[in-house]
Write a structure and sequence with these properties.
- It is a single chain.
- The protein is mostly helical and 186 residues long.
- It has one domain.
- Helix content is 62%, strand content 0%.
- The chain contains 7 helices and no strands.
- The chain has helices spanning 4-16, 23-34, 39-45, 60-78, 82-101, 139-145, 149-185.
- The N and C termini lie far apart (49 Å).
- The mean pLDDT is 94.
- Bound molecules: zinc ion (ZN).
Length: 186
């Protein structure tokens, strides 16, 4: 699995591609890009943080339903399009699942149950781009176990892959804005 930093970068890339520049929209996008890892909490409560990790919250159906609910709430609140808002929040959730199946996984079953509940098969990409997160399962030591050299390397890989993409998407969006403004002036 990539780190929360990797997933936040994926959310930021999606945000950079949007016209909507609201801070709350950015926060929600990052929230949905991180949401599948809420399954750490289920195990954390019983003292075994890794216990339920990479289960149903890492399926397409979960991220679609969560994004849809988020889209309806956001669009109603900000008087925006339900379809557009839902689509972008669903994309944020899908970005999480994709990043996870592109990452090294040392714990069986490898990958994510992306087709749950239709299939319990775990899927992982044959080509891995990202590294994994070294961590203990015991809740008491879980947080402090995240701060190590291996995880710093994992973060560096995420920056190396995703930061250039973020810059490119941001640049394209800026160019489009400038063009729209200049064509509006003429
Ligand atoms: Zn995950």
């Amino acid at each position: 699995m990539p780190t929360p930093i990797g997933h936040t970068l994926a959310g930021a890339i999606l945000f950079a591609a949007q016209k909507n520049r609201r801070v709350v929209f950015f926060i929600l996008l990052v929230f949905f890009a991180l949401l599948p890892d809420v399954d750490f909490l289920f195990g954390f409560i019983i003292g075994d943080a890794n216990r339920y990790h990479h289960f149903f919250t890492h399926s397409f159906i979960f991220v679609i339903l969560a994004g849809l609910a988020g889209g309806v709430i956001y669009a109603t609140w900000k008087k925006d399009s339900i379809l557009k808002s839902s689509a972008i929040f669903i994309s944020a959730g899908i970005s999480h699942v994709i990043l996870d199946i592109l990452a090294l996984d040392k714990r069986e079953p490898f990958g994510c149950p992306i087709w749950w509940p239709f299939s319990n098969e775990f899927v992982i990409s044959p080509v891995l781009v990202f590294s994994d997160v070294s961590r203990v399962s015991e809740s008491k030591y879980f947080i402090q176990s995240l701060f190590n050299e291996h995880n710093m390397r994992t973060i560096l890989i995420e920056f190396a892959v995703l930061a250039p993409l973020l810059i490119v998407v941001f640049g394209i969006r800026k160019l489009k804005l400038v063009r729209t403004k200049t064509s509006g002036l003429s």
